[in-house]
Amino acid sequence: MERHPFSTxxxxxxxxxxxxxxxxxxRNSRVARRALRNSLLLTGIGLFTFVVLLGIFADFxxxxxxxxxxxxxxxxxxxxxxxxxxxxxxxxIFSRVVYGARxxxxxxxxxxxxxxxxGVIFGTLAGYFPRxxxxxxxxxxxxxxxxxxxxxxxxxxxxGPSTANAxxxxxxxxxxxxxxxxxxxxxxxxxxxxVTAAICAGATDMRILRRHVFPNTMAPLVVQLTFIFxxxxxxxxVLSFLGIGAVPPTPTWGNIIAEGRNYIREAxxxxxxxxxxxxxxxxxxxxxxxxxRDVLDPRMKVRHG
Amino acid sequence: xxxxxxxxxxxxDLSVHFRTEGQxxxxxxxxxxxxxxxxxxxxVGESGSGKSTVALALMQLIATPPGSIDAERxxxxxxxxxxxxxxxxxxxxxxxxxxxxxxxxSSLNPxxxxxxxxxxxxxxxxxxxxxxxxxKAVDLLRLVGIPDPEARVTDYPHHLSGGMRQRVMIAMALxxxxxxxxxxxxxxxxxxxxxxxxxxxxxxxxxELDMAVVLITHDLGVVAEYTHRVVVMYAGRIVEExxxxxxxxxxxxxxxxLLLKSMPPLDEDLHRLLAIPGSVPSPTEMPTGCRFAPRxxxxxxxxxxxxxxxxxxxxxxxxxxxxxxxxxxPA
Amino acid sequence: xxxxxxxxxxxxxxxxxxxTVRRRGGLWTSTATVKAVDGVSLNIDNxxxxxxxxxxxxxxxxxxxxxxRLSSLTGGRIVFDxxxxxxxxxSEMRPIRREMQMIFQDPVSALNPRMSxxxxxxxxxxxxxxxxxxxxxxxIRKLLSTVGLANSHAHRFxxxxxxxxxxxxxxxRALATQPKLIVCDEAVSALDVSIQAQIINLLQDLQEEFRLxxxxxxxxxxxxxxxxxxxxxxYLGRIVEIAEKKTLFAKPLHPYTQALLSSVPIPRPGAxxxxxxxxxxxxxxxxxxxxxxxRTRCVKAMDVCAKIAPRLQHTPTGDxxxxxxxxxxxx
Lengths: 305, 331, 331
Known about the structure:
heterotrimer; B: about 325 residues; alpha/beta; Rossmann fold; eight-stranded mixed beta sheet; five-stranded antiparallel beta sheet; C: about 325 residues; 12 strands
C-alpha cells in the first residue's frame, strides 16, 4: 500500500529517511538504516537541531532586543515577560541566550571548518608522503603537549579579544586532533588495493588523494569534528568568560555567565540559563558524534577526549 | 560400522540464531549428526555455510545475546551440554572437548611465554605442581613435534612461525587428553608444505590418543585424506552425510556433486571448470524450499516450494534432495 | 608456444628487490636487509599464462609488484613489449600502464567503497582517455556485460556485491584500457570453490577473446595447473624451476617442487601418493642459507649445495631447473 510520506505511521523516522535519501543523496542505504535505529544519534540530532533552530530564528524568538537596557526591570526572575529573567542592566536573558546560540554556533562552525581543512591538509600530507610525516607530526605533537585550553587562552590573549581571534586560536588548537585522525586513516587507505589499482591505472597523486584517499577519510573526520564542535563551544565560553573572546555587548554564553557571576547568589538565572544552553549543545553534539561513529563504521575506533 | 553403543557426541536439531540490527539471522538451521569415539568427522562447506558456528555451539562458546542456541539434543558421552551450568561446561571444555582455531596467533596470548600458557592450561584441569606441569608442557611440545622443546618453552608466540604456533595450539588442546577435538580450519592460514606437517601430526596423534576429531574445513582435499566420514553444509543446513569414500565416489546431493566438479583437478587437464552459478544466499534472504534450488541445475518446482528432508539410504548415508525421493517412489 | 621465433611480451632478468627493515636488538635499532626477490629471470610470451607459485614469503607477489612498477627495483631489468621499463619515472610509465593491469586478491580492499561501480570501472578511462568521455558510459556498460554484470549494477556500490561479483568488477576495471598483460595476484584465492570456478572460467574466456597474457600468481597449485601454460616455482626469493605445466606435474625435477606437489591433499580418498613432508620452516629471507637456499630442508642436500648457489639450467625437455642434484643425475 502506498503511504503518504507525512502520514503518521511513518513518523519522523520516515521523514528522516526521506530527507537522507532524497535530499542528502545518502545512497548508502545500510548507513541510513543503521542511523534510523540508533537512538543516540537521533537524540543528538534532535538536541543539536533544536539549538541550531534557536540560533537561526533568534530574530523572531527574541522579542526584546538582546541589548535593550530596561533599568526598571533589573534582576527580574523568570516570568512570562522574561522567560529566563533579566540581568543587572534589565536585559532579557532569553534574548541574550538565543543570540548567544548564534555566536556560539558561528564560532563552533568556523572552528570546525578551519581545523577540518587544516587537519585534512596536514594529515593527508603526513600520511601520504612519508618524508613529511615526521616533520608535520612532531609539530602537531608539540601543540598537543600543551593543555588545549591554556594554549587557546595564550593565542587569543596575544591576538587580542575578538570573535575572529577566538576562532583562529581554537582552530590552531584543534588542528592536531583532526590532523591525527586524518593521518591515521590515510595511512590505512594508502595500503588499500584500490589505491594500488589507481596507480596501475596511471592516476596522479593528486587524483588518488582527491578520489580515493579524501572521501574515505571523511567518516572518521566528521565524527571527530562533531566532538571538536562541542569542545569549541565550551572553549569559546571559557575565552569569553575570561574576556578574551567576543567583545561585549555581543552576547555569548560565556560572557553572559561571566557577567552573571557577581550575582550568582541573588540572580542565579543569569548564569544558569546560558550554562544549560552550553550543556544541551555539548550533550547533543557528543551524542551525535558517538552515534555517527557507530553508524558510519561500527568497527571504527576513534578516541576522543 | 554403526554400533548400537551411545555415540560420543549426539547432535539433534541444533540451530544457532543471531540477532543483529533488529534482524534475526539463522546461521545454523536444525542440523543433526553423531560422532563415534575415535572417529574423524569432516564438516565441509563454503563461507556462510555455518560450519564454524557449529563448533562454537558445541563448545557453548556462542555469546548470548546476540546469539541463541536451540537443540533438541546436544549430548556428549550421554551428558546434555545444553543443560550444563557455566561451571560444568568449563570443566568439559579443555578437559574432554578441546578446540583449535584457524588463526593461531590470535589464540595465543602475546605477553606470556608458550610454556606459561601451557602450564596454565594444564594446572586448570589437573592437580599438578608448577614443576610437574612444566615438565608436562615440555613433553607436550615434544609430542607435537616441536624441535628442542626445553628451549622453546621460554619462547613468546611471536618467536614462532605459523606452523609452530599451530603446533603449540594443538599441544594446548591436547594438554588434558580430550576425547573430542574440534579443529576449525586448523591449516587454512598455513602454507601447503606446513599444512601437510600439521595434518600428518593431527592424524598421528588422533590414532595415538584415540581421540574423536571434528575437522571443519572448506578444503575437499583435506577432507578426502584425513577424515572417515563427512557432513556437507550449505547455507546453514546439512545437505549430505556420507562415509568419505562414498561421498567422493558417488555424491548424492547436487551441491556436493557440483562442488567436487568445480575444483580444478591436480592430475588431469580440463578445458573448462564446471562453475556453480550464482552465490550462496544471504542469511537474511533464504529461499523457501531447498536452499540450493536457485543454483541447482536439477531444480524442479517442488524444490523451490518445499524443503526436502534428509533421506537416509543407510545408517551412515543421507542427503537432503528431492531427487532421492523420486527414485524411491515407484512410478 | 614457439618462444624462439616471437619476442616475449615480458622479459625480466636478474630481478632483485631488497627491503631494509629496522630490527630492535637491545638498546639500539639496527637495520637488516630482506632479500625479498633475489635474482629472478623469466619470460612471458604473448597470449600465454605463466603461473608463479610458491609459499608465503617466497617473493612471488613482490615480483608482480615489481613488474607493475609499483615498487622500485634494487637490480635487474624489466623489458615489456620491447621496451626497458626498469627505471622509468612515474609520468613516463603512465602511457605504458594502459598495457599492463593488475587483479587483486582481496575483493574488499580492491574497490573504493565510496565509488560506484561505474566510477570504479571508468577510472582508467578517465585517466587515459579523458577526451572521449562521452563514450565512456557505453564502454563501461560493455565492460560490465563482458565480465557478466548487468547494466543495472553500474550505479551500485561495492558493499552491495558478493565476493565473486566484486572480483568481476575488479576484472572489468583491469580490462578498461585494453591491456596486453594482466598480473593476477592471488586473484581467486579469497573466493569459495564454487565462485572460484566462475572467475577462473571468466579469466580464460577473456584471455581467448582479447588475446590477453597472464602472470598468474598463486599459492594454489591446482588452480595454477588448470589456468597456466607454464609454471615457475619460487622459493625464498629465487626461481627453482620453470616448466611446461604437464612436465612439471608429471615429472617435477627440483626437490622443492616435488615436496610442494606431494603436499597438496588430493580430493579423492585413497589417491594419496607418497608424501614428502618437509622438515622445519622456510628460513628467514633476512639471513638465507648459503649456497642453495633450499638445502636446509632438502632431502638430497650435498656438500656442494652449501657452497655454491645453483643456477637455472636447461633440461633436456627445454625447461629450467636450478639444482645441483639434478645436474649430477644428468651427467
